[in-house]
Amino acid sequence: MKEIQGVKNPLIKELRKLQQKKYREKEGRYLMEGFHLVEEALRAKAPVELLLVTHKGLAEWGEWLDQQSVTRYLVSDEVMKSLSDLPTPPGIMGILTKTEAGKVDFTGRWLLLDRVQDPGNVGTMVRTADAAGFDGVVLGHGCADLYSTKVLRSTQGSQFHLPVVQRALPEVIEAFRSQKIPVYGTELNEAAKGFQEVAPTANVALVMGNEGQGVASEILALTDQNLYIPIYGQAESLNVGVAAGILMYHFRS
Amino acid sequence: MKEIQGVKNPLIKELRKLQQKKYREKEGRYLMEGFHLVEEALRAKAPVELLLVTHKGLAEWGEWLDQQSVTRYLVSDEVMKSLSDLPTPPGIMGILTKTEAGKVDFTGRWLLLDRVQDPGNVGTMVRTADAAGFDGVVLGHGCADLYSTKVLRSTQGSQFHLPVVQRALPEVIEAFRSQKIPVYGTELNEAAKGFQEVAPTANVALVMGNEGQGVASEILALTDQNLYIPIYGQAESLNVGVAAGILMYHFRS
C-alpha cells in the first residue's frame, strides 16, 4: 500500500478541495468520513474511488480492508486531519463518485424538502425517511448539500437505501398531482389541517420547509392540503426533523 | 452602563469559567447566549443576574433593554467572543442562577432520559416535550448538562415552560409505578411491543436512551413494558430525538 505523509502531496491537495461544494460539483466526487459510512457505501456497491487509511485505522480494519478491491493509501494522522472536519479525525475516509439516481418514479411515499439549511436536519430526515420505508427524498433548491460531510454523517448511510434527488419542487409536485397522489405541505398555522385528521396512505408527497421560515408560500399554494402538528405546550415550534418524523410515521400507521 | 473592554477583566475571567460544567455546579450559575433565549428567560421570570451586551446588541435591542431591570454591562466584541462557543458570537448574553425545580409531582406525561449524551438531542427532546404538552422531563445520570450553552440553544427556551429535573431514574420510575402510572422503556428490538399497539394516555412515563446503546438493561428491567418503533426500510435506527417525538405525539393522539 502506498503511503502519503505530507499534507502538501498533490493528491491530498486535490482531495482537500472537495470540502467545498463548488469543487464537489465540478469534479463530481466527494469525501466520506468514518468506517460506518464507508462500509455502508461498499455494501451498497456505491462507486468508491479510493480509500485513505491511517496507521490506527489499518490496525483496526486491516482484515476487512484486505477483502475490499478498492485502491487505498496509508496516510499520516496529519493528512487525515487536513481532510476531515471532525475534531477527532476518523481512521478511514472514502472518496466517492457522485451518482445521481437516473429516472425516478414519483409514486409511493416521498419526502420533499424546501430550503432546509441545517446539514444535520437534512441528513436526519433522509435517515428517518429510510426508517419509515419512504420511497425517496427530493431536495429542492436551497437545501444543504447532500454531499457535505455533515449531511452524510447524519444520514448514517441511508442515502444508499433510497433515492435522494435534487429537483425543483414545483415540477415534482406537479408530477405527483398529475397522478392524483396527494401532496401535503406543512404550516405552523392552525388554519391548516391537523395531521391526525388525515388518513395514512400508501401514496403521498410530504413537504417540509426551512427552519425559520417554513415552506415557501409559493410552494404551499401548489399543494392539495397543508397540515400542522398541534402544539400543546408553550414551545413556538418543533424541530423540522422531529416534525418530519412524526408525520412520516403517521402516514405509515 | 459600565463598559468592559478587556478579556482579562476579573468579572469576565470569572464568567468564562462557566463554560465548564464543574464551575457551573460549584457556582450555581450559567451562561445563556442570544436574544431569543434571554428574552424567554426574562419573560419566564427566571433569575437573570446580569446581562452582557455588545455595541451592536445595544443598537439592536437598546429600547427593549431599557425596559429590563437587570444589571448590564456593555462589552467589546472580543469579550463576547471569549465567552461564547458560537462561530459568530451573539450580541447579548445572560448570566443566570441555576434553579432546581422544588418538589415535583410525578403525574401526567413525563419524558425520562437515560444517558443521552448529545447536547442537541437533549435540548431537542426538552423542546419537543414542551410542544407535546408533556408535564416534565427527567435527566438521569450521564445526560448532557442542561446548563451547557449547546443544550440551552436546542431547548429554545422550553426549559422555562416545564420542569426539567436531574434525578436517578430508578427512583423516578418507582414513583410512577407506585401510582400505577405506566412506565414504557424503548428498545430497538422487535421482541418489544410496537408503539402503535399501546393506547394514548394522560399519564405515562416514557424512557429514551443513549444514542449508541439505547436504554440500559437495568432500567429496561424496571419498566412495565418496552416499546419499539418499527423500521420499515433499511436504516438501523432512528435518531433518538426523532424517536422521542414520534412516541410523545403518539401518546397525545
Automatic annotation (TrEMBL), chains A, B:
SMART domains: SpoU_sub_bind. GO terms for molecular function: RNA binding; RNA methyltransferase activity. Residues 31-102 form the RNA 2-O ribose methyltransferase substrate binding domain. Keywords: Methyltransferase, Transferase. Pfam families: MRM3-like_sub_bind, SpoU_methylase. GO terms for biological process: methylation; RNA processing. The keyword Oxidoreductase does not apply. The keyword Transferase applies. Gene3D superfamilies: 3.30.1330.30, 3.40.1280.10. One of its GO terms (cellular component) is cytoplasm. This is RNA methyltransferase. InterPro entries: Alpha/beta_knot_MTases, MRM3-like_sub_bind, Ribosomal_eL30-like_sf, rRNA_Methyltransferase, SpoU_MeTrfase, SpoU_subst-bd, tRNA_m1G_MTases_N. It comes from the Bacteria.
